[in-house]
């Protein structure tokens, strides 16, 4: 049933690693892949060539994400990758176009992807090989990122383009707004109007 050739024997440990990883929690899974202890890797995440993945502290990888690190993948600290997001660092385009899409083809092209610190990559995003995403950038869900993203910008669409630029004053005002609203909600929740469990904003209807 099992093939005994070089390719099969090379792939089998990767398959077993993926299988074992599904039985771990998100912190254990991050440690299993050799990532910082503060990182969290959710269920059904697939990492291709994890030895080529560099990740900073306090990163979060959502369910079903596929990270192709075969061409080199760098993710900065405090960055989140949304569920079912795809990151590519290689392409077989030329191999397909020339009918040379066989195992070991010399027309597979690899280019590294770099994602900065403090980034938020939404769910169902596709990031193409060779892209650099600057620090503190936001990529909206369902976007296709085919070219570099400047720091402190919000991009969206297919292909993704810049819709907004952030500065420190804007981020500071948003921090103040969210903390004030969460404090208001926690106050109402503590008074018996909602559920104070969990972190961040309590769940429930807090409209006035």
UniProtKB/TrEMBL annotation:
Keyword hit for Transferase: yes
InterPro entries in UniProt: Hexapep, Hexapeptide_acetyltransf, Trimer_LpxA-like_sf
Biased composition (Low complexity): 189-208
Single GO term (MF): acyltransferase activity
Region (Disordered): 182-208
EC identifiers of the protein: 2.3.1.-
Entry keywords, A to Z: Acyltransferase, Transferase
Pfam family, one: Hexapep
Similarity remark: Belongs to the transferase hexapeptide repeat family.
PANTHER family: ACETYLTRANSFERASE C18B11.09C-RELATED, SIALIC ACID SYNTHASE-RELATED
Name of this chain's protein: Acyltransferase
Originating species: Amycolatopsis rhabdoformis
Origin organism lineage: Bacteria, Bacillati, Actinomycetota, Actinomycetes, Pseudonocardiales
């Amino acid at each position: 049933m099992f093939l005994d050739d070089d390719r099969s024997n090379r792939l089998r440990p990767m398959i077993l690693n993926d299988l074992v990883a599904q039985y771990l929690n998100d912190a254990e899974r991050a440690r299993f892949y050799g990532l910082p202890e503060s990182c969290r890797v959710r269920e059904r995440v697939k990492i291709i060539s994890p030895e080529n993945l560099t990740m900073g502290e306090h990163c979060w990888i959502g369910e079903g994400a596929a990270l192709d690190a075969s061409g080199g993948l760098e993710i900065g600290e405090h960055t989140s990758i949304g569920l079912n997001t795809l990151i590519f660092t290689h392409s077989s385009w030329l191999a397909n176009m020339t009918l040379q899409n066989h195992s070991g083809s010399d027309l597979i092209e690899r280019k590294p992807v770099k994602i900065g610190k403090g980034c938020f990559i939404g769910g169902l995003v596709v990031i193409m090989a060779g892209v650099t995403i600057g620090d503190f950038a936001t990529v909206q869900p369902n976007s296709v990122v085919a070219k570099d993203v400047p720091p402190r910008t919000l991009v969206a669409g297919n292909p993704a383009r810049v819709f907004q630029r952030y500065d420190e004053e804007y981020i500071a005002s948003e921090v103040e707004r969210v903390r004030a609203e969460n404090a208001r909600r926690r106050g109402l929740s503590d008074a018996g109007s909602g559920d104070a469990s969990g972190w961040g904003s309590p769940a429930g209807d807090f409209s006035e």
